[in-house]
Amino acid sequence: KMLPRIVKLAVTDVRFPTSLEQHGSDAMHTDPDYSAAYVVIDTDCGLKGFGLTFTLGKGTEIVVCAVEALARLVVGKSLQEIVSDFGGFYRLLTSESQLRWLGPEKGVIHLASAAVLNAVWDLWARAEGKPLWKLLVDMDPKQIVSCIDFRYITDALTEEEALDILLKAREGRKQREDQMLREGYPAYTTSCAWLGYSDELLTQLCADALGNGWTKFKVKVGADLEDDRRRCRLIREMIGPSNTLMMDANQRWDVAEAIRWVSSLADFKPLWIEEPTCPDDILGHAAISKALAPLGIGVASGEQCHNRVMFKQFLQASALFVQIDSCRLGSVNENLAVLLMAHKFQVPVCPHAGGVGLCELVQHLILFDYICVSGSLANRMCEYVDHLHEHFASPVVIRNGHYIAPEDIGYSCEMLESSVQSHRYPEGDVWKANTSKPEVKMDTF
Amino acid sequence: KMLPRIVKLAVTDVRFPTSLEQHGSDAMHTDPDYSAAYVVIDTDCGLKGFGLTFTLGKGTEIVVCAVEALARLVVGKSLQEIVSDFGGFYRLLTSESQLRWLGPEKGVIHLASAAVLNAVWDLWARAEGKPLWKLLVDMDPKQIVSCIDFRYITDALTEEEALDILLKAREGRKQREDQMLREGYPAYTTSCAWLGYSDELLTQLCADALGNGWTKFKVKVGADLEDDRRRCRLIREMIGPSNTLMMDANQRWDVAEAIRWVSSLADFKPLWIEEPTCPDDILGHAAISKALAPLGIGVASGEQCHNRVMFKQFLQASALFVQIDSCRLGSVNENLAVLLMAHKFQVPVCPHAGGVGLCELVQHLILFDYICVSGSLANRMCEYVDHLHEHFASPVVIRNGHYIAPEDIGYSCEMLESSVQSHRYPEGDVWKANTSKPEVKMDTF
Which portions of this protein are annotated as coiled-coil regions (chains A, B) (predicted)? Predict the structure, then answer.
């Protein structure tokens, strides 16, 4: 077992021109270029750690700048030093007394913390020779708890309660691990129905997905009600009444508008409406949830829920499908807090994924959730989007609508060096060939 | 009347080494170097606009980078174009489809939006030849309302309600304006009792402040209970029972701890406890507020309340002293929304100030609040801190514990060119003389 010391942290602005084909388009993000601030940690023993945070193109350079500001807190530390008090290291990064003004624990600086911490977790898993989910599964509950910063959440979950949850869930753990290795974790696909896709493309992608064993589908809504009704009818007819349909509005509405709009889509029987309004609006989500409950429609949110304190309140205020994000929250550390709180409040965690690398990362967390925390698959599934996996050294494997548990060591977000080089912004080949594009997009906003 | 077009937006990283003397030290921010991302707008007619956002030192370069990303959305626009649909321009900046992922409307990207929009408001006031508060006071209520983005707040305040509030408050407006010009707006001082100050310094500063007519004082608490009791007793004895004392914990506690700690400071009769816990914890603040109400202690928050949607929920969940911030929120536009919501919920607005430039900026907003929105001074006062004003072209004027209404045109945040040059980071003379300092501070964190 190696105990490496971190000697260098490098960060790269990597962008993919996804907006050219309207991949990822929704009611609020009309032309995303899926991007990442990509972190590589070097150690004194040759072992590396890879991490990233996901962005939508413009502004990735700001996150890169923030990672550089945090790097000074990481370089020089040994892995042992970090993981022996990982909760303390988390706080060192997220509560540095001058930098915290820029958040605290939100926005650019928190996305940057996530990229850095994801790389540290990757390094740790590699040092232990395990995939990250297995590192977590094998970890002593006390050590799991020591990775969490409980500041500001003890009114919802104490350290003792967290430990108790983990100890109770040890029963049946081995069987659940075997089950995951055998069957994988249930997934749903968002790839069929981006807002910018034509009806023809939507129909074709739905048919293909059904053929590949998918049973759970998400459709983007919120730009135009008649379009939404047409698209939802189309997809519900394609998938039939017994498959699962979710809807995603990407923050398009105010509270009253959300209730009205979703009520008029109730015929199509969605399991949930995702992000009906501002991701900061805890009380608004609670009001929407209460109004839609009689229609059998749940509310989901989380991909822009910026920290554990926000998730705590979402859980305190109403039931919610908890959509953790591996890069919005402060890496594994903060996601562990949210998984444990969600279990205490007995609501399902259904991770956000897609973008670039999010599927690769978050599959590890949801495997841990099933094996060591929730022990349940009821109303649970992990988002899947089938773009950009080819750029990763250990891409996700999907079989029959399930995430197959990763076997490669680490946290699965190492990118191929060739992909990094060609997609560096603005100097990579992909962008040199597209030089006029960013300006054009700005002007047409 | 000039109708300038913006031809250039420049931003500078300006830092003041305030940590050397523990100015600004509190339970969470032990060594702030008050800093700013300082924006200068140039126009085609020679008129300039000056704006800033406040930071604590490290990481200012990240905000500078974010301002540069936003500049592309501003340069080329005419002032007329912007102010004829200022709400729309606000949304253009804050909801740009790729950049919004980095917030939305929070953290670094929102601080940067504030800096840019502050400069635009300054430009507008200069173009009209008025101090900003007077520009607002003279503005047609419909135009005030058109500056606000009502997205996500219509469940608390509609455009019609906002207009109605402004129209009703026209009664007595002239008298209130005259009163402000005569007496100024009541202030309280935070300069006597920073956490890092010795008891001797605290005693001396208190005596000086009383001599200068101050009647309202704030003390920093939260690091050590016995220290807090000693310091609070000292200051209460100095100021006597009839003057006002506020306490500020700067986010130090969890919910239960906050209630316990503040309860044991109740003897010293604070008007409010400020930021008892995480600034994101709406429900936590409500629980603390409920527990402390029987002791006659209120709860205040806002300097890190990151947008109008958070303020909306704080107001919906419980009573609160609303501490608007001229740089945390999206400039005048978003602060107008919060002033109007606070009035609807009938709670006092007591702005956050201090840092560098915050007093200069926020005095304009609270003058507008009194003259055109709240019409009341009950339990209302604006924070004052007596540092760094000498670096501004039109520094605040305090007389007898009141902010004197500014007469100079603009938004008062133009810095002296000599100050900007000598405090540029890292190349200014002040920092060249202190080169080893940032590294030392990092290591001792």
Answer: none
| A66 with B56: Cβ contact below 8 A | no
Is B106 a residue of the active site? no
Q: B-contacting residues of A 78-107, CB under 8 Å?
A: 92, 95-107
Six-digit token pair at A402? 């399930």
User: Residue A364 is part of which domain span?
Assistant: 169-417
Best to test chain A binding among B62, B72, B289 (most A CBs inside 10 Å): B62
Q: What digits encode the pLDDT tens for the residues B6-59?
A: 999 999 999 999 998 777 788 888 899 999 999 999 999 999 999 999 999 999
CB–CB contact A58 B98 (8 Å): yes
Query: Residues 61-80, chain A: which have Cβ within 8 Å of B?
Result: 61-63, 65-66, 69, 72-73
In this complex, which of B100, B107, B254 lies closest to A109 when CB atoms are compared?
Answer: B107
CB contact under 8 A, B154 and A256: yes
Look up the CATH number of the domain holding residue A348. Answer: 3.20.20.120
Contact B186, B17 (CB under 8 A): no
Is A69 within 8 Å of B56 when comparing Cβ atoms?
A: no
Q: Measured between alpha carbons, how far is residue B43 from residues A178, B3, B49, B79, B120 in Å?
A: 67, 9, 8, 9, 11
Which of A276, A289, A281, A353 lies closest to A320 in space, CA to CA?
A289
CA distance A415 to B423: 41
State yes or no: is A352 an active-site residue. Answer: yes
| Residue A386, amino acid | D
Residues near A138 by beta carbon (within 8 Å), at least 6 away in sequence: A130
Predicted model pTM: 0.96
Q: Which residues of A touch B73 (CB under 8 A)?
A: 442, 445
pLDDT tens by residue, chain A, 445 residues: 557 999 999 999 999 999 987 777 888 888 999 999 999 999 999 999 999 999 999 999 999 999 999 999 999 999 999 999 999 999 999 999 999 999 999 999 999 999 999 999 999 999 999 999 999 999 999 999 999 999 999 999 999 999 999 999 999 999 999 999 999 999 999 999 888 889 999 999 999 999 999 999 999 999 999 999 999 999 999 999 999 999 999 999 999 999 999 999 999 999 999 999 999 999 999 999 999 999 999 999 999 999 999 999 999 999 899 999 999 999 999 999 999 999 999 999 999 999 999 999 999 999 999 999 999 999 999 999 999 999 999 999 999 999 999 999 999 999 999 999 999 999 999 999 765 444 433 333 2
CB contacts, 8 Å: A282 with chain B = 282-283, 313
CA distance B8 to B104: 25
Query: Residue B179 CA to chain centroid, in angstroms?
Result: 23
Q: Which of A55, A13, A11, A9 is nearest to A423 (CA)?
A: A13
* A69/B59 CB distance under 8 A: yes
Helices B107-128 and B60-71: crossing angle in degrees, nearest 10, is: 60
Split into its structural domains, chain B has a count of: 1
Residue of B nearest to A34 (CA): B98
B191 and B205 Cβ atoms separated by less than 8 Å: yes
* CA dist., res. B3 & res. A242, Å (int): 62
CA distance A407 to chain B (A): 32
Q: Is B111 on the interface with A (CB under 8 A)?
A: yes
Q: Residue A89 falls within a domain, yes or no?
A: no
| Residue at A241 is within a domain | yes
Extract the tokens encoding A136. Answer: 């977590």
For residue B344, is it within any domain? yes
CB-based contact, A256 to chain B, within 8 Å: yes
Indicate whether B102 belongs to any domain. no
Backbone angles phi, psi at B187, to 5 degrees: -125, 160
Q: Respond yes or no on whether ipTM tops 0.90.
A: yes
Q: How far apart are CA A395 and CA A361, in angstroms?
A: 10
Q: Do A155 and B317 touch (CB under 8 A)?
A: no
